[in-house]
Specification:
The protein has 8 helices and 13 strands. By secondary structure, the protein is an alpha/beta fold. The chain has a single domain, classed as Rossmann fold, CATH 3.40.50. Strand 4, helix 4 and strand 5 form a beta-alpha-beta unit. Helix 2 runs parallel beside helix 3.
Length: 280
């Protein structure tokens, strides 16, 4: 599939290379095209976690903003496994890797989940405004849905794992359920987008048992001091709502934004219930 319609696809330089994006994804398009950054604190967090030769997983890679960050941090001796189920978005991910000469990323058009089976995703139209990457998967077929294969982290057969980033639109718990053997073996850092309620929070207690410390953090999508040097004082302060999971067996890192320690499942539910999600 070729995505070359200039009315639908923008292309710009940003902090980590050059990137193509759906021009009608209002907030992400503005962040990249005008400011040359997207959620910089999150990018810096991944840079501080990863070292040359590391292995990272990007579940819900979208167009590849964070995939590019991880690929550069892991270097040619490392690797990134990127998963994106939406076909038009996966095509942009593939193009962005090629555009930047990235060779240490294995990009797959499928979804990570608790096991290998089939789910369904909307047949999205990138001509529509909004954030089509924020649409999740469904268990059953319905009008306008197309099938996509799922695979579990444990089925990847990894011999190392240093970072797992999961942004799967409410299915984060299922992705973790498919990766406990890998998590127990390698104790990777784990980054979870957490802007909607989950089916289960058993993962919180499991990670506690595995000696993880967990924190909410809220990186700004657009900020001053951005790559293109454009003042952002009048831009709405929209943030990502994330949980960063620190394995105590690994070296500590310094976070560039305030973090808030999580002590209970109820705290997660209460925090997420208060969020107002903006259409990026």
């Amino acid at each position: 599939m070729a995505l070359v319609d200039s009315d639908l696809i923008g292309e710009t330089d940003f902090r980590y290379g050059r990137i193509r994006y759906p021009s009608r994804w209002s907030y992400m398009a503005k962040a990249l095209s005008v400011y040359g950054d997207y959620s910089l604190a999150e990018c810096i967090t991944f840079e501080r976690i990863l070292r040359e030769g590391d292995t990272a997983i990007d579940a819900g890679a979208s167009i590849g903003v964070f995939t590019l960050v991880m690929a550069r941090a892991c270097g040619p001796k490392g690797k990134v496994l990127a998963f994106e189920p939406q076909l038009p978005i996966f095509e942009l991910l593939r193009q962005n890797l090629e555009l930047n000469g990235i060779e240490n990323v294995q990009a797959r058009r499928c979804a990570l989940s608790s096991n290998c089976h089939q789910r369904y995703v909307p047949n999205i139209n990138i001509a529509r405004p909004g954030n089509m990457g924020a649409i999740g998967t469904a268990d059953t077929q319905a009008d306008g849905l197309v099938p996509v294969t799922t695979i579990s982290i444990d089925d990847l057969g990894l011999d190392a794992c240093d970072l797992v980033k999961i942004d799967t639109e409410g299915h984060e718990s299922q992705v973790l359920d498919g990766g406990w053997r890998t998590i127990e073996d390698y104790r990777p850092w784990i980054s979870l987008e957490m802007d909607r309620l989950q089916d289960s929070y058993d993962w919180f207690h499991r990670l506690q048992e595995l000696k993880y410390d967990m924190y909410f953090y809220y990186p700004l999508i657009i900020h001053n001091g951005n790559f293109k040097g454009v003042p952002a004082d009048d831009v709405p302060r929209i943030v990502s709502s994330n949980i960063i999971c620190f394995p105590r067996t690994r070296r500590p890192i310094d976070m560039v934004v305030q973090v808030y320690k999580i002590t209970s499942e109820e705290q997660i539910v209460e925090t997420v219930s208060r969020l107002k999600v903006a259409p990026l």
